[in-house]
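**Sequence, structure tokens**
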Amino acid sequence: MLRFFCWKITILLLLSLQLHSDKNSEIYSFIDDNAQYFLTVIKEEGSNFEDNPDEFKEKLKNIWEPMVDVQLVSRLILNKAYKSASQEQIYRFQERTKKLLLDTYVSTLLEFKDYEIFTNAKIKTNKNKTFEIEIKFDSSSSYSFITKFTVYRNKGGELKIINIIIDGINLGLTFRNQFQGVLKKEGNNLDKAIESWQPLSSEDLFSN
């Protein structure tokens, strides 16, 4: 009986390890595959950015947008203002947030002409059921930096990004603090705050 019990425990442990390995492999592929493709598009077509920025960004948007839970990110940035916001205001804010995230990320990556991406296979599991995975952007002619992605699985079972930390700059926290400052400046007028909240350039964001 004891031997049978030990075998059951061993099998359960092996199955648990296998499930953990499969989960980490899925998260790794979700980030690495899309990031490598994103980088390939930038390398091959980045020279077209100044001539036709809208077309270039649209192509990147088609890769980027499905990866991010814009609704949740927008809710976190709006913070307390989310509860009193109308559906129309929330929609406009989500559209602004998508532009802000894409512009910041793309403008940062375009500064590097000869870098490669190395995704860390070690994935951190947080207590709030989110996961953290790191990518190293390695450049031979400029400094290298680490980007950390916070990922979770939504109710539909899809992996989604909910935060990004680029070279130590927490975009989610930075955007939330920035918007709350704009909201206060506009006398808590949400419509005016959404309208005046402008995307930060990479120079402004990483100036410190």
